[in-house]
Amino acid sequence: MATTMFDRIWDSRVVADLGEGWSLLYLDRLLVHDLSGGRAMRELAEKGRRVAEPGKVFAVPDHALSSAPGRTEHTYPQGAKLLASLRERAAYEGVRIFDIGTPGNGIVHVVAPEQGIVLPGLTLACGDSHTCTNGGVGAVAFGIGSSELVHALATQTLPQRRPGTFRIRYEGVRPAGVTAKDMILAAIGRFGAAAGTGMAMEYAGSAVRAMSVEERLTLCNLSIEMGAKTGMVAPDDTTFQYLAGRPFAPKGALWDAALADWRKVPSDPEARFTRDEVIDMAELAPQITWGTSPEMVSDVTGHVPLMEETAPSRRAGLEAALRYMGLEPGQKLAGTRVDWVFIGSCTNSRLSDLRAAAEVIKGRRKAEHVTAWVVPGSEMVKAEAEAEGLHHRFTEAGFEWREPGCALCVAANGETVPDGARCVSTSNRNFVGRQGTGARTHLASPATAAAAALAGAIVDVRSY
């Protein structure tokens, strides 16, 4: 029987059938971060339990660390307390920690792929909704809650309901200016923020096969913004080349054996999905959100919807979003003044993202009134970017070159966009208050964000 990639991996990790669509699932990897990792391991100890398989658990502080240049663990005092807790519990349990200031530190969903912790065919969980990012290498990766994290640490398993499957095929040649971020934002806009509810996404098609692994990670990152459990891209030679030589990837004969297994992971050609959609790449243009949900998105040359273009049941939501965002129905997005630009987050802070933004800058300077931050996704990304001189290109353009971490994406580290300020951000959420009280967030690609910083307004990057 033809099988999807998701079902193949899921079935291989079922410890017990719990009935009514539920399974006890084995987890090959667990990731923990500073907001919940220390607390979960402390709760485990209070219950008289230990981490079941510490060699398969990895701790990465990222959310509550300051990204200020020259930062230390004490720059943000509340973050220092969370880091101390994570560090203490990781040492007690024998869990590897990628500590602040070490070469492996960074955003957890940037670190896991670049270190080779996540591999094709594995199951991975973390107490963070954007764990789905890791599916870009062909793994089943999903976020879990705090109580689930304690259970997973204690048993290396978790009761889970099997989701359906939803494949989106991107077919055709990618138009100029269109990035992975634009592709997934366009899908969310077309199908809706709830389209993936109860689903495992698979991204496929000729345009996806032509992508780098870093771009595939971006696609999968926003699966949760479509309501999905996880997102995946089939592993192929591009994946294998990316993983070869990574610190935690197999070596020697183990690598050869792993390759043989990984080639069996992709969905069978005849596999049937719960839902199957096609997006014609010729129809896509650079995207930018205008509201308070990722589904409130448009071509950058488009406009805010008119009330008469909106279904009656959605008009109250439109009014509330526009009131918060300070926009009017029918307003053109291009030319809208921008106060802040943020290039970073687990969505778009990898080396290829920084290269794309730097290419747009090309010796220009940002608009005087714009505050622009570039936050690399990891120490490895930062070092590689600096080796290429990208940091000089940013700083000479007036951007701040900062330390790795979640930074302005989550506003959990004392770093926020000011009340009422408008920010073009490469992150993944534009909810009310996401980047700070009253902050107005427009999601876009690194290239579009860089262009906005230069223009001081939303602009079509294709003109750069």
Can you offer a commentary on this structure?
This protein has 15 helices and 19 strands. The protein has helices at 5-12, 37-46, 77-93, 108-114, 146-155, 180-191, 206-209, 213-221, 237-243, 252-262, 315-325, 351-361, 379-387, 390-396, 446-455; strands at 14-19, 22-26, 29-32, 57-59, 96-97, 123-126, 140-143, 157-161, 164-171, 199-204, 230-232, 275-280, 287-289, 297-299, 340-343, 371-374, 400-401, 422-425, 440-443. A five-stranded parallel beta sheet has the order 5-4-3-6-7. A five-stranded parallel beta sheet has the order 17-16-15-18-19, covered by helices on one side. Strands 11-10-9-12 form a four-stranded parallel beta sheet. Strand 1 and strand 2 form a beta hairpin. 55% of the residues are buried.
Compact summary:
This protein is of the alpha/beta class and 464 residues long.
Defining key terms:
464 residues, alpha/beta, Aconitase, domain 3, Aconitase, Domain 2, 3 domains, five-stranded parallel sheet, 15 helices
